[in-house]
Amino acid sequence: MKGRGTKLAKLVEQTSFLPYLIPGIAFGALYLSLFTHRIGPIPALYGTFLLVALVCIAKNLPFTGRAGITSMLQIGSELEEASEIAGAKWSRRFMKIILPLSINGAISGFILVFITVMRELSLILLLVTPETRTLTTMTFRYQEQGYSQFSSAISVLIIAIVVAAELATRRLTKNKAI
User: Fold this and answer.
1) Which of 8, 104, 138, 158 gives a 20 to 30 Å CA spacing to 119?
2) What is the C-alpha to C-alpha distance for residues 46 and 48, in angstroms, rounded to an integer?
3) Where are the domains of the chain?
4) Contact 67, 60 (CB under 8 A)
5) DSSP letter, residue 45
């Protein structure tokens, strides 16, 4: 891949980890202050599932990006250079060489983010209203009200969802080690 060692590439890579350095509560408060009211064409998103999804993606994007970058860097430049000499355009080289060889790394990054988001509590608690129900907030509320059996049942459900996602990923990648 061209541009692997450029200063701009290194700067972008380092900058992508800034959301990870911010604690979940501070990150949630930042987004809460941004999306509690309408900003131009963007409606107020406080309490919506869309805001929770956007914030969780933004908070954990460095992991997925790093996994994808690492798997792409492992691909030898000879393959790409040979296809370039053969006259293949960049889009064809990407679709036929880089993407198939790096897809497992990207999928493993997705699974890491999925597992992290499924157990995230501090970030999500700030972004939801009492009417917005997610599994993690329901677990917290049941435990807070003394219904530890319900809380434990939801925790088992979360574990089952994570395991099912992992098994589906293994099946999707044709049982290759991720």
Assistant:
1) 104
2) 6
3) 7-131
4) no
5) -
Residue range 7-131, CATH number = 1.10.3720.10
What band does 29 get if pLDDT is binned at 50, 70 and 90? Answer: confident
pLDDT tens per residue across span 111-136: 888 888 887 777 788 888 888 888 88
- Asked if the model's pLDDT at residue 1 lies above 60, the reply is no
Q: At what angle do helices 24-35 and 49-73 cross, to 10 degrees?
A: 130
| Alpha-carbon distance values, 25 to 21, 123, 131, 158 (Å) | 12, 5, 20, 22
**67: amino acid identity, one letter:** A
Task: Name the nearest CA neighbour of 114 among 153, 75, 172.
Answer: 172
pTM above 0.70, yes or no: no
Q: Is the pLDDT of residue 147 over 90?
A: yes
On the 0-12 / 13-18 / 19+ scale of CB atoms within 10 A, 170 is: middle
Distance between terminal CA atoms of the chain?
Answer: 22
Degrees to nearest 5, angle at CA 94 with 171 and 178 = 30
